[in-house]
Amino acid sequence: MSQDPSAAAIEGLIPGETTRIIAALIRIAGSFDLAEDALQEAVTAAVAHWPCSGVPKNPAAWLTAVAQRKLIDYGRRAQTHRNHVDELSRQISQGHGSHEDPTDSPETWYPDDRLRLIFTCCHPALNVEARIALTLRTVGRLTTPEIARAFLIPESTLAQRIVRAKNKILEARIPYEVPSRDRLPERLDGVLAVIYLIFNEGYAATTGEQLVRTDLATDAIRLARMTAELLPDEPEVRGLLALMLLHDARRAARISARGELVPLEEQDRTAWDRAQIRDGLEHLGTAMKKRRPGQYQVQAAIAALHAQAGTSADTNWDEIAALYGELVRLTPTPVVALNHAVAIAMARGADEGLARIDRLHRFRPLATYALYHAARADLLRRLGRRAEAREAYKEALSLTSNRVEQAYIRRRLAAFG
Amino acid sequence: MRYMMLMYSRETPEGPSPEEVEHLIRTHGAIMSDAQKKGVLLAVEGLKPTKTATTVRRLEDGVPVLLDGPFAETREQLAGFYILECRDLDEAIEWAKQIPTSCKGQSGCIEIRPVADLPNPPTLV
Questions:
Q1: N or C: which end of chain A has fewer CB within 10 A?
Q2: Distance from CA of B113 to the nearest CA of A (A)
Q3: Interface predicted TM-score (ipTM) of this complex, two decimals
Q4: For the whole model, what pTM was predicted?
């Protein structure tokens, strides 16, 4: 995570703490912008003072205290917010805030401020692009240029998106709260969807030269790890974390030295990150102990079976096909049905898989989905139906703008001679 | 904060059936009495169909022009509104989820708009 140099230096001292600090400041200020300004000033003060005075015992508390004083200054300057300033001073003097030497005050933040922040940034009243941008900026602490680069959009567009989201939160009064118990599952689904979208954007960019945009995948994993710590009783959060860890563990093997996509069965399994796989398996195990399955846990279980197979031939395809059957039940989307068909082809033969894939053609979204035609082509090839396979690869090629995917399909086509 | 819930429904030439009218009266009645009991009901009105509407549009030269009917052909027309005092958007969304919109099983929607506070409200004499 890179930021401007001084903030990065602070982040180096207290990793992850800036999210905690900004979450507390937003609650106190009632404004994303004022909180960011106050934190920025506190960081500037730290950069000026710490080299001479030494780093305080609790740097996070120091920064929070200084930022809170800045917030009071802002309030005094804006006379219209008189009452709010009184409330602020009251809160701070009651011990939610700072003292002169704030060396050890865990009470500076409420324990769930970061959760408030996550749920607010992922509020369903914000459009999904705004949720992604705001979550990366405010929770993930990425800079606007970094996010814009990752999504290949102009910086000004991204900046506008964030401004618009923050204004809507303020103007429409989106609450800075963790949803109530009865609404938590629904709202949590929304949060996990945002994190997974960020991961997928990083993992398989749909356009451009580079298939894996490393940073976004790492950022998504970091966000999921934090959410899992904050909501330890929600197994789907850990399920998503496990899923992303297991997928991301294959990163080095997924792209060849020439920048080409390497399909799972051809990947060099010694290049998989074993430590990360162990981490993923552990989180999946913890999640499954809760006995409340969900789509992310099932997907992670599928990824775990792949990760544990010594060779492609050793893969437990029967089990994977059964898990995809479960996933179709949980999330009946055409793409999941396609994966189910492919798993059945691996478990019970290309014939049966192809019959299923052909039946899926009636789903309109699949007819224009490159990977649908690529999967169909692979099965036709295995069945020796070369002419049909070639046609299907050509169809797939015409439907993807991802150059790495294009290169993979071209390689397959070339194999026909 | 005050929120205006704008109800958009699809109008049909023959209007809602007696059973639908009965259903609408019952559902809106329940919401209104609930909102009133909680002290958050600031206003609620239903509107006559758009065929009774007149639009005044000021053209570029500043001269007002009268048009018979609504200003644009849209699938869903404004059919009424509530103004409710809510703590935040989440509370407003909960109210909006209860408000019926459909006529004859057709689609409809509720638009939630926070009411703007005027910086200096005009004093009425």
A1: C
A2: 8
A3: 0.82
A4: 0.84
